[in-house]
Amino acid sequence: MYRRQIEVIGKENQETLKEKSILIVGCGGLGNIIATTLSCIGLKKIYLIDFDKIEKHNIHRQFQFSLENIGESKAKRLCENIKRCPDTEIIAIEGYFDENIKLDIDLILDATDNFEVRKKIDKFAKSNSIPWIYASVEEYRGQVGVFKTTPFEIFATKNHEVKGQLPPMVNLVGSIASMLGLKTLLNLQDEIFYYIDFENDLEIKKFKF
């Protein structure tokens, strides 16, 4: 099943993935892309957590949902829709992320649109020595970062109203977050931060902590 992937990462790294478990916080636009992209790379477990229900305005950018799913749990529906590969157990958790949650995981992927939740993710990650991937997108811009020891407080964390989102930008940012997650699981990725601007020509700025 993973032949073409093994051609890139090798059999040893594929065996490593087999023992890895991840948590994706948020099952909206970014969560849809990240969960779908990582659902069939050979992981041990994927946990999905979200408190929200599917609404009509979600459909255009949350690709695993359709009109007949309106009113359903995002976490449960996404969980069912990405069960493509029998090697990976996928578990839906309905509710809010709590920094006291008890899970045996190797990586967290942020797919929220809330700085306060990201602070909780960072606190949980630091207290458990777990790396995490930060991702955000609005309008023509996106941000993606890998956090290991650097505190999330380096960001200006004031809350602001989230602006509109374009499906291709959500897809782009979610895919970058997924790639960083894969490399982090294989210990091939250092801390990094990317700022992506596609309003005119594509521009990607890279910052190291």
Structural notes for this entry:
Helix content is 32%, strand content 22%. The longest helix is centred in the last third of the chain and has 19 residues, at 167-185. The protein has six helices and eight strands; from the N terminus they run H-H-E-H-E-H-E-E-H-E-E-H-E-E. The relative contact order is 0.16. It starts with a helix and ends with a strand. Helix 5 (115-128) links the parallel strand 4 and strand 5 (132-138). The protein has one domain (3-207): NAD(P)-binding Rossmann-like Domain (Rossmann fold, 3-Layer(aba) Sandwich). Strands 3-2-1-4-5-6-7-8 form an eight-stranded mixed sheet, sandwiched between helices. It is globular. The chain is an alpha/beta fold and 209 residues long.
Defining key terms:
about 210 residues, alpha/beta, Rossmann fold, eight-stranded mixed β-sheet
